[in-house]
Amino acid sequence: MQEAYTKEFIAILDYGSQYNQLIARRVRENNVYCEILPPTTTAEQLKKSKKLKGIILSGGPASVYAEGAPKMDKEIFEIGVPILGICYGMQLISHTLGGKVTKADKREYGLSKLLIKDFSDLLWNLRSTLDVWMSHGDQVTKLPPGFEPIAYTMTCPFGAVRNRHKKIFGVQFHPEVVHTQNGKDIIKNFLIKICGCTGDWTMKAYVKDAMDNVKKMVGDKKVLCGLSGGVDSSVAAVLIHKAIGDNLHCVFVNNGVLRKNEEDEVLKTFRDGFKLNLHYVDASERFLNKLKGITNPEEKRKIIGGEFIRVFEEEAKRLEGLGGMEFLAQGTLYPDVIESVSTKGPSAVIKSHHNVGGLPKDLKFKLIEPLRELFKDEVRVLGKELKIPDEILWRQPFPGPGLAVRILGEVNKENVEILKNADHIITEEIKKAGLYRSIWQSFGVLLPVKTVGVMGDERTYENVIALRAVESQDGMTADWVKLPYEVLNIISSRIVNEVRGVNRVVYDISSKPPSTIEWE
Ligand code: XMP
Hints:
Low-confidence stretches: 342-357
CATH topology of the largest domain: Rossmann fold
CATH class of the largest domain: Alpha Beta
Shape: globular
CATH superfamily of the largest domain: HUPs
Bound molecules: xanthosine-5'-monophosphate
Number of strands: 18
Structural class: alpha/beta
CATH architecture of the largest domain: 3-Layer(aba) Sandwich
Number of domains: 3
């Protein structure tokens, strides 16, 4: 548990529901700091936190009677802070305290009407009927002593329950999902009205505390940081720099397959603007040489990943020569941390084989991860607090192997140049149309075919660019974007007019699944 910068802390015990990250998000939206902890967390461990204001028991796929179903430490009820059980969490509370949980006739999944009987605490200030999101098989059929229902649905007499005296609450529905009307208010009532939180989790406080932590950890030693120009590494680097100044050494590797002007922008922003100690390694020739003749996408990934590690290691060795280089900074985010602590963990993370841009594992550094308590959108708020420009904070994701997996077939200088120019036009026009932030990714792909065209009186035989634009929450599934015809039109005509070697543009209208976002 890490809660240095707040006076308030909510513990969320993770019983494996797919919605668990959402619970944490909803809590933090109320400026209350929380962490997701394993279901095996004991009352003893929780009591160590003097700031503990309340406990949320999450939903989960198990049935309380199933063999191996996650249990809770009964002593948790004696800590004396309010408890809210959601779905499985509520069933677990009932089961543990002597109520009864039964298999419902049929699984209830989707929206139900919740009728509220008591508005005095958890359901304070709400309308008498709400649409709520249900997703359960079992349900509570007899309440433990001291409990009473405060809301119900047609099929579920105990839609929401409480033990007023002990401040223990349970809801059979999921207040954390957007489909539940006023779900946010229910969570807010729990935090503010019931647990007495004031909401002291702010990014300003976070910056100060994170800086203090970095200073304390690093002392007068040096930190090495791989800067890619993406959101996470940029925010981590600026934060650490604010704490320890020039003892931070950032390394930025140009692998030859970056977006147009990317290296200039990164240098301008971070070296000139933020005055970071930025070591620029132009390894583009080296990468392109290795990629010669390679057409297999996975081979390209391996070559780029492997070469990146070698280049980074060489640079790290050189910098170690400066002495005192003991730490390696990484932009690890909270979802990665949750995945490693929880029973099931969230499913929505980008495939691990994609993380080829990752840093070498066997470097003898201690890790420093100043973003490990934050969600992606919190990292953006932090970045804003640190005055990092929006162009960096709102950059669409870009794969580690870069343009190499968007050039189908062999990667060489000539086709890198063609794709850079076409891709640049796409980004410019998508930004001009005000669509850049709402689109998950928009980019060009250079196809390995030539087609016939006509320019003036001349017949041409040149390359095709495929335009790809997708909407997505996490990259796991995606829908192609219905771009306005005018935008398609201007992108297409600008590319064929301005990019030498391209005479045709096509639009990719496939979603994921069954297609993937990238073409390789
Ligand atoms: P796909 O193509 O699998 O991509 O639908 C899903 C998301 O992952 C990104 N991606 C990668 N990111 N290295 C990365 O760092 C990779 O090798 C890689 N391949 C795909 C892709 O851009 C999309 O956001």
